[in-house]
Amino acid sequence: MAYQLYRNTTLGNTLQETLDELIQFGQITPQLALKVLVHFDRTMNQSLAQKVKNRLTFKAGKLNTYRFCDNVWTFLLSEVEFRDVSELCKGETVKIVACDGKAVPPTKDD
Question: Domain range holding 31?
Answer without folding.
Answer: 5-51
